Amino acid sequence: MLRFNIMKRYITLIAAVCAVLASCQKTEEPKVSHEETNPIDMTLNVSIASDDTKVTFEDVDNVLRTAWEVGDKVSVVAVDAGNKLLSNDVFTATSSGKSATFTGTYTNDTWANEVFVIYPALSVGSGTAESKWKSESGVLYAAYKGNAYFEVSHPDVSNVLNDPSHLKNVAVMHGQATMSGSEFDVTLAHQTYVIKLNLTFPVDGVTPNFIYVRGFDKSGTSKHPSKFGWTYFDDFTYLSSSTSMLLKNYQTISGNTATVYMYGFAGVSGRTYNVDDYFQIEAGGYVQRKTFTKETTIVNGKMYTVNVEFE
Amino acid sequence: MKEEKNLYESPKVETMEIIVEQAVLQSSIPDMEDGGDLFAYVE
């Protein structure tokens, strides 16, 4: 277990600031002037982040090359021994590359059993039961202090032809941080897998507004439930989803081929398909099945290629 | 006689510097490996 900085001094100073600010709200002018009553000088270190850069995904020879960009945001979350959320602080990348430095303020002021880093950052909301934290894309949501788990969804994405960049909003990553002085170190693990669909249509100029990939067992029963579920902050074991994936797309294909990148959560043990189970791929009114001829397990952190030629 | 407190007296606050601790996070990110063609053996 790790013990993390106690920041009671910080809390005390903030309380002092609040007290002074409250006093300034009086409408009456003070009858007694004190030269000692000065504004409080504050030193705040603020990183300037660009809003238009994100984690990059680049498909190079069927490997998704990932890298941080300046301005990327992750959540640093502290949990207690019961795995209940103590704090959620957004850290911002100040460098780019495979490894990057993020800066932020760790606000947890009590004992933390463990600290984890989650991408995408839970950057929206205030962390109360009334205003729960969520990621901007909505792929992660319903996180709040005192709770041990949060929810995972499958937000709509659009305009996805031949471009894996939308994965930056939904490719969930997670890792446990270690602390040394005022620094955290973490290596994140992918919690998603990707299906790279190479689509070929019998005609040019199709606009496949909705693109589905669904998994079925050999009897035609949906292989997995459709709900994307929930996960603990410390343990993503239970985070696995249906193989029903949906992308929205409003682009017309130039020619008759296109590539799209779908994603899902395979859980720790992966998603296993047995012989005669099958994928059903639907796009632009076309449907095709692809049947497994040997047992196959899909795991997180990999991108699988599926070539589909509609007839 | 009890002295009345001056309700309008400003609080006496010393000038201070607030230092917000700035933790640094070093984070690395993995590639997504090539999982191969799921249905290559039936193509």
Description:
Chain A is mainly beta and 311 residues long. Chain A has two domains: 8-22 and 54-190; 193-309, Sandwich (Immunoglobulin-like). Chain A is 5% helix and 37% strand. Chain A is built from one helix and 23 strands. Chain A has one helix spanning 8-23, and strands spanning 42-43, 56-60, 63-67, 73-79, 85-93, 99-104, 114-119, 140-141, 149-152, 173-176, 178-180, 183-187, 189-190, 193-200, 210-216, 230-232, 245-248, 257-264, 271-273, 278-283, 286-291, 296-298, 302-309. In chain A, the strands form seven sheets. Chain A has a six-stranded antiparallel sheet with strand order 6-5-4-7-10-13, with no helix packed on it. Chain A has a four-stranded antiparallel sheet with strand order 17-15-20-21, with no helix packed on it. A three-stranded antiparallel sheet of chain A has the order 8-9-16, with no helix packed on it. In chain A, strand 20 and strand 21 (286-291) form a beta hairpin. Chain A is globular and about 60 Å long. Mean pLDDT of chain A is 81; it is low at 1-53. Chain B is mainly β and 43 residues long. Helices cover 0% and strands 30% of the residues of chain B. Chain B contains no helices and three strands. At the A-B interface, helix 1, strand 1, strand 3, strand 6 and strand 12 of A face strand 1, strand 2 and strand 3 of B.
